[in-house]
From TrEMBL:
Coiled coil: none annotated. PANTHER family: BLL5160 PROTEIN, HYDROLASE, ALPHA/BETA FOLD FAMILY PROTEIN. This is 3-oxoadipate enol-lactonase. Gene3D superfamilies: alpha/beta hydrolase (3.40.50.1820). Pfam families: Abhydrolase_1. It comes from Nocardioides piscis. One of its GO terms (molecular function) is 3-oxoadipate enol-lactonase activity.
Amino acid sequence: MTAVPVHHVVTGPDDAPVVVLSNSLGSTMSMWDAQAEALAEHFRVVRYDTRGHGGSPVPDGPYAIDDLADDVVALLDTLAVDRAHFVGLSLGGMTGMRLAARNPGRVERLVVLCTGAHLEPASAWHDRAATVRGQGTGAVAEAVVQRWFTPAFLDANPDMKASSEGLVAATPAEGYASCCEVIATMDLRPDLPTISAPTLAIAGADDPATPPPNLAEIADAVQDGRLLVVPEAAHLANAEQPATITPAIIAHLAGDPA
């Protein structure tokens, strides 16, 4: 499949180092709202919607992880960016790992949040894809958001709960289902030892979808990896605990020692 021109927004100084932000399954670039302004003080921030999500095209599936990486390469080429930092959460983190392994010249530093190199069982992802194709993304929205945030956060932030469920439900069914198939068929474990970009792996301590051992596996296997486990955070840890995560991202991308 050929690369698609993904919807993107660029903020921050034109002459600053570039950082690309990649969203999770069922969200859009808006999931980085808690980070975007602070990052733009230091970097040229490129936020984009993964294919099948938000304002990006929705090609017929299935998709593969290389398709998502190809979209990022095409985006960098469009922006005339040779090399960039990459920050991705969940599906976005998978995209970043594949890009860093396959196109090492394009990735300066890497941050992966709440993700995994291989998520089993594949049958669960195929089942979710079938549900969404048959019933729409609204059928899974409530269950998805229950995993995005801790129960305490959802109880304290009913508006965030409602808007997040709306975000999932607004995701095109084919885009969501095809990205489920990306996860079902993906195994990045052989890629990890080839990743030379300094990598920060951030886990939510309470993440039921990609718990801390998933991120520890990544940090241990890449050539230059470090693990940060964030308390009181589930799958969208960046939105739940920005006061911890945003400074950690900035420090890592700036090359500051831990």
